[in-house]
Every structure is written in C-alpha cells, then in structure tokens.
Specification:
CATH class: Alpha Beta
Largest sheet: 4 strands, antiparallel
Strand content: 15-25%
CATH architecture: 2-Layer Sandwich
CATH superfamily: Nucleoside diphosphate kinase-like domain
Radius of gyration: 15 Å
Structural class: alpha+beta
Helix content: 40-55%
Number of domains: 1
Amino acid sequence: MENRNKLQSNEETLIVIKPDGFKRGLTGKIISRFEDKGFQIKKIKSFQFDKMEAEEFYNIHRDKPFFNELVSFITSGIVVACVIEGINAVTTTRLMIGSTKSSEADAGTIRGDFGLGLTDNIIHASDSVESFIKESKVIFG
C-alpha cells in the first residue's frame, strides 16, 4: 500500500492557455479536459503578460535562440492561467497536452487537436514541481 501511495501522489501544477488558445475561444474546452480527468482548479486568472513577467516566466530558456520569440508571443494577448490539483498532476498534464511541436503531437492531446505550430501551440504546462513553484510565483505571486 505504501508503494502505491508514492506512485499516486496528489500534487499541483500550472497550465497556461496561450494567446492563440484564448483568441480562438478554446479556453473552456481545454479547461474542461482537465476537469473531466478529475483535476480540481485551485486558482484561475486571465491577464496579459508584460515583457518583464514573460522574461521571468521563460527564464529557463533565456540563452536559447527562440527566447525572444517566446516572450513576444506570450505577451501578444490574453492568457488564462490555472493551478490545478490531482493525482500525479505534472506527469499527467504533460501527457494530456502532447508534444511541444503541434505537428508531432498525438491526436487526442490538446496540442494534437488544437495546436497550429511550435510557438502557437495553445498551452503551456509546468514540466516539474520545481518549475511549477517558480512559474506560479510569476503569475500568482
């Protein structure tokens, strides 16, 4: 029983519906997928990143050639951020959203069903508990 509890831990993670998802009216469809999976929304916020917030949010990519493109895109419109909670939230959420490149994402994943490109891939999700802590502080303080 102890081993099972380690495999199925309740945790929080962050999802951010990017400007393309919000502009296309997909926010409700995306959030409902997580609710249907059994996740609970703990916090939700719609806003527009300013440049400084976006640079802090994507700080892990600062030295990569696509950093400026990420910052430019995420600041281009309204986003909807949610802290969600559930069993193995980080891993399950990453599986649900699919590959970063929408063209490579499996059908049935959020990016596979709705994404149009690499940067305009509908959704961001924290890739670890540590990333969740850093990223959620940028958004929710």
